[in-house]
Queue: 4 jobs
Job 1
Amino acid sequence: MGRAIEEIALSKGYTVPLKITADNLEDFNTENLKDIDVAIEFTTPDTAFDNLKRLFENKIPTVCGTTAWLDKKADAEKICLDHGTAFLYASNFSVGVNLFFELNKQLAKLMTGYPEYTASLEEIHHTAKLDAPSGTAVTLAEGLIENHTAYTDHKLVEGADKLKTKSAILKISAKREDPAPGTHAISYDAEIDSIQIIHTAHSRKGFANGALLAAEFLFDKKGIFSMKDVLF
């Protein structure tokens, strides 16, 4: 993701004065951050919060796409506001996926009146994907649950046969195979037919484009934002 974002940023005429990886953590310091306009954070669940804390303490508006650390998100938002800067988190920055999030909510509203259909969610990612279910799948599950009266929570399960078991728990299946930038499918299955909506990413460029779009939006702002603020 970092390389994809850098490539697009440079093509748009931006500079990328600081790139931090596990190999140069000593460069992640106040001196090197002083001339940074916006940071984009894509790392790991174990490091995201500390990275964000340091960026906010240096008053750097930050876009974050790391998933599976959200138990600390409220703390990160408070630190951001306490230091008078800006924060935008998204589980997925693809414009298409964010449109898909809204489509999922609308379909859930329609389907809530038809209890004969059982909802389920399947996601497929590359084998280097660390979290399961993906952050995108969790966002989709939460959007469905908020708009469908039959579901109260979601759960990761193994085996396609378990997805269609009717209960108040939305079942999620996560597959890891290469190459697979990311596919998410929401299904509603009944005895007579099935309804399905699918988003498939063809490369990481869509995510990188969206992250850069978010960074452009966040420049010179203060507060907490989401991709809805950017796109709608």
Job 2
Amino acid sequence: MLKELKREVIVNKVNYTITEIEKMAEYVASSGLFGVKDKKQAVALLLLAQSEGLHPMTAVRKYHIIQGKPAKTAETMLAEFKQVGGKVKWHQLDNNIADATFISPDGDEIRITWTLEDAKRAGLHNRENWKKYPRAMLRSRVISEGIRTIYPQIVFGVYTPDEVIDIVENQSANDDVVEAQVEDESGNKIEKEINTLKNLGLEAIVKDGWIKADGKKVYEKKELLKKLGYQYFPSKKIWAKKLA
């Protein structure tokens, strides 16, 4: 009995030393499984697993590394949601629409719908996966948004592989906007600032020689605003910049 107990403890061990994690990371990275390409990515993934109380190989199965960022498949999110008592009712699922109601373990409900038109507005429809598997992609988006909204404990800020690609591409586009702003010294200063904020999905308010960045996305664009020379004023809770 004692031997069996010791064996169970070893099998279920999740608190590894950094040396053990680095050794496991070497094997994971050399295998090339699930998009993990180097040891640093593997170490980060295994540390994430340890923080969630997961066995390292469970994490490798649950998470994929997409362009250096951890991602969970929609199937994993859905499975974990159901494991804690969540439920999903599908109203429609085809190549044009995915429509489902998500019910949390506490009984809260929310209905999420994604259509091909939504994908077009988001600039997703021209991607290869969306062309080949529109139903699966719509399903993935509905699952991720539904669970993220009603039971965020499952995702902890982690997105599906397709969403991660979208985030990375948007970040690259925003970085291009910043570089263009820094390098372009011609044209009207105010108009250029307004257009820059517009390209970032923000509104510009010009008053008394200052320009203020406004809109729902201000917080998530704060690092880009810093690069553009904007300052945060805590007393007014605004990001603004003095126009020369």
Job 3
Amino acid sequence: MTADGRAFGKIGSLGWGLVGFLSAAIALFSYRYLLGIGPLAPGIIANLYARPFLYLHIVGAATALLVMPPQFLPRVRARMPRLHRWIGRTYVAGCTAGGVGGFVAAFGSTSGLPVTIGFGSLAPIWIGVTLMGWRMAVARRFPEHRAWMIRSAALTFAAVTLRLYLPILQLAGLNFLSAYRLTAFISWIPNLIAAELYLRGYLRIRPRVLAMAA
């Protein structure tokens, strides 16, 4: 392998490692709501449908986010296919529960109609994309399975991009409520667009980088 190839391989490893770290950190931090351990966001606690739907969303989405990164590692798929399948079932269950809980909780948001529309739209799309990926796996149509799961992962990762955009938008001058309303859309729509661009071949990444993140 050339020095250039090794450099891109290291970038891919570091990038996917960062994805895994952020996913695990946000997932584990989110579980605090189930235990009532602070700090807990007042606006989230005040959601009209916090019990049980917001908590269903939290446990489902956090679990999906936690188990998602290893599913894209080639070594896991190739050497431990049974583990890959069981983690996949856990992921699908987490996305489904998180999506159902999130859809209902969106209508109980204390942050206004934009948040209801933004997150209320994300939930059924997330569920539908994930179930399509599961259906393709059951049918053993693995290229399609991989494509749908890339879309699903992009939507699952919205839990991370949401928390990245919020402080950036506030530093840019928006107050918290305005920033939160905006992230109800930009936390997931650009992720899904990026996934589509990648799947259609518009995002060109060196093969070695893809191997680390596929």
Job 4
Amino acid sequence: MDPGGSERDQGEGGKMNEARQKIMAIIGESGCYLLSIVHLAEGMLKERLDAVEIYLDALANKYMQADCFILEPAALMAMMVPGNWTMMKADRDRPTGPGELEILRYERKTTLKTYGHFVVGNGLGAVAWDPLGDALTVNGGELVSKRLFRRV
């Protein structure tokens, strides 16, 4: 994802840059599913995408809430990679089929809270890419489910 500027960053006194920083903070705090979908799209397109622009477009299209809760993951993927897409939530033990792209959801439970984290899977149920690099929730938690994307 390109953290650099865009056309939307133009403005007086850096107001757009300040807004961009706030969006980047939201994405950094709770955007692991968003970033995982963007990472899959980047791999197919063979180009870097601007996560802030995607965030703004996803909000405008109502594919996502402001806190990065994804409402329409297949539509979000289609916004970046043209075509018709489906997304199926699957059990952690379901094999990933031919043509399916895998995002894994991990959970780590503590006494007071359950932490969730999404990563890109390698198609065999293992981590291929982690938005945090080396998340504690992945290392100290367990795989609980998969999100399987398929172009139809």
